[in-house]
Design a protein that fits this description.
Blueprint lengths: L7 H10 L4 E5 L6 H12 L17 E4 L1 H4 L2 E4 L9 E4 L3 H9 L3 H11 L4 E5 L5 E6 L14 H23 L17 E5 L7 H16 L6 E6 L2 H10 L3 E8 L5 E6 L3 H5 L1 H14 L5 H18 L12 H12 L14 H17 L7
Parallel strand pairs: 1-8, 1-9, 2-7, 7-8
Antiparallel strand pairs: 3-4, 4-6, 5-6, 9-10
Length: about 375
């Protein structure tokens, strides 16, 4: 495995050449997980197979779940009347197969309620291009057309993918292709799952990780899985649940190249999550290389420390004038989709804020320091 100063395409090639059933990758937000999923997809399927609108499922070599998958689902908020709120589904070969050909809509509903709330009920239209949500509790009149939270929305999209993945594994477990219930999946070789736990609380995150691990362990075919995450809990559950795997940490170098280091333990044993955050921030500050994503790492370090010390909110660890610092961090850690809102390189004052807040955390919350 090449690991020093290489491109994401080089790393994708190494992942493709690896014969492990599962490859599990940890990386901080902003390092390049989603770009790696794209590089891998283009490497495995460099032509029309990457265009989900132009080709059918039968031609595909890879199933992938990443931020672009979630973008296939978008809200119509009925801004004029604020009544007919619905989640639109951009039709493609995957959703067409799940809903149209396999009739998996009830399974999607069941999975979604499993991860969220039994009373929160999705309802599809006749051609599965949109879905509305309502709360249905006993004899009470249902609360119609509610807009679900971002975490619930992520659960819904994951439930669609999970339903597809379960069907894929069951079909490909039939060893003889001519005996399978469909030939639409015979070309599949890889499943690439990039961070399905965005916006989930820890309980749902752990359940999702356990369910995914159990499903992967049911796979008896040659299908291979690559999973990336920024979440140490999700990483640890998969690490502990899955045996036939290779584990890595993806890191971005200051020159824009990447390093993929093989790891043999969970997040605490193999890369000391909080200490790696601290060291990464210190190096960036020392070299005057603070970028926007370092605000995300700083927030992660505050969250990790707050959780360890029992603080209900990480913002409680901030110095005086907490609200001002909180707003600055939130501004730089938000995942804006508008190019005009994307912050340029942090200003000198903003870089100084990273140093100030890191020094505050180290000095006040019992981080060990060299004499």
């Amino acid at each position: 495995m090449r690991n020093m100063g290489v491109s994401l395409t080089d790393i994708a090639q190494d992942l493709k050449d690896n014969d492990k059933k599962v490859q599990l990758i940890y990386a901080f937000n902003g390092v390049g997980k989603t770009r790696l999923s794209k590089a891998f997809r283009l490497l495995v399927a460099p032509k029309n197979d990457t265009d989900i609108e132009q080709t059918g499922l039968a031609s595909k070599k890879i199933l992938y779940y990443n931020a672009f998958t979630e973008d296939l689902f978008y809200w119509d908020n009925d801004l004029q009347n604020d009544v007919d709120i619905k989640l639109k589904i951009h039709s493609n070969s995957f959703t067409g197969w799940v809903f149209g050909e396999q009739g998996q809509d009830q399974n999607v509903i069941d999975y979604f309620q499993h991860y969220t709330n039994k009373a929160l009920t999705p309802r599809f239209n006749s051609n599965f291009t949109e879905v509305t949500f309502s709360y249905e509790q006993g004899n009470d009149a249902p609360t119609q057309n509610v807009k679900i939270s971002k975490g619930e929305e992520s659960c819904f999209v994951w439930s669609v993918f999970y339903s597809l993945l379960k069907q894929v594994i069951e079909v490909l477990n039939v060893a003889e292709p001519t005996e399978r219930e469909t030939d639409q999946l015979n070309q599949l070789e890889y499943v690439f799952i990039d961070d399905p736990v965005t916006s989930l609380d820890d309980n749902h995150l752990i359940q999702l990780a356990v369910d995914l691990a159990q499903l992967i362990k049911l796979s008896e075919s040659e299908l291979k899985f690559i999973i990336t995450t920024h979440n140490p809990i999700f990483y640890n559950v998969l690490h502990n649940e899955i045996n036939k795997k290779a584990c890595y940490m993806l890191d971005r170098q200051e020159d824009g190249t990447f390093e993929l280091q093989e790891k043999n333990g969970d997040s605490n044993k193999s890369f000391s999550y909080h200490l790696h955050l601290k060291n990464t921030l210190e190096e960036a500050i020392e070299n005057n290389q603070v970028q926007k994503y370092h605000f995300t790492l700083l927030r992660n370090l505050y969250e990790k420390t707050a959780s360890f010390l029992g603080f209900p909110k990480w913002s409680e660890l901030l110095p005086d004038n907490k609200e001002s610092y909180y707003n600055r961090i939130i501004q730089f850690t938000s995942h804006s989709t508008l190019a005009s809102e994307s912050a340029a390189e942090p200003s000198p004052q903003e870089k100084q804020t990273v140093k100030l807040l890191l020094d505050h955390l180290i000095s006040n919350y019992s981080f060990w320091k060299e004499a």
